[in-house]
Amino acid sequence: KRHDSSAGVTTMRSENDGNKRPRGNEAAAHGTVAEADVTDVTSRLAELESMLRQALGRIGTLEKKNKAMERETRALREDMDEVKDENRALKWSLKQLAGRVQQSWE
Predict the structure, then answer these.
(1) Nearest Cα to 77, choosing from 85, 92, 65, 88?
(2) How far is the C-alpha of 81 from the C-alpha of 93, rounded, in Å?
(3) How does pLDDT run across 3-43, given as a tens digit for each residue?
(4) Whole-number Å distance between alpha carbons of 96 and 88
(5) CB 22 within 8 Å of CB 30
(6) How far is 30 from 47, CA to CA, in rounded Å?
(7) What pLDDT, on the 0 to 100 scale, is given for residue 7?
(8) What is the C-alpha to C-alpha distance for residues 63 and 68, in angstroms, rounded to an integer?
(9) What is the longest distance spanned by two Cα atoms in the chain?
């Protein structure tokens, strides 16, 4: 019997050796590490949230600037179209004038 009971104790010890649950002071140490991990994760999440808010703010600013640039580009294109129209009108007027001058020389 004694041999069996010592074998039973040996078996129980080997089963307990594989148990990874901390005991006593180990549990307190692991609790502190887990709390530190949670604090680190929480702190990192707060940093990431701040970075995201800053990025979104910059995106908003760039979108406003882009809209302003689009308006300015549209206005410049309209100005170019007006200049082209004026250029065509001036060319037509110049041809008309050149034609009259030529007629007067003949």
Answers:
(1) 85
(2) 18
(3) 444 444 444 444 455 555 555 555 445 556 677 788 889 99
(4) 12
(5) yes
(6) 25
(7) 47
(8) 9
(9) 144
Of the CA atoms within 13 Å of residue 12, those in its CB half-sphere come to 6
Least Cα distance to 91 among 79, 80, 99 occurs for 99
Q: Tokens in use for 91?
A: 């060319």
What is the full DSSP assignment across the chain? -HHHHHHHHHHHHHHHHT-----THHHHHHHHHHHHHHHHHHHHHHHHHHHHHHHHHHHHHHHHHHHHHHHHHHHHHHHHHHHHHHHHHHHHHHHHHHHHHHHHH-
Residues in the chain: 106
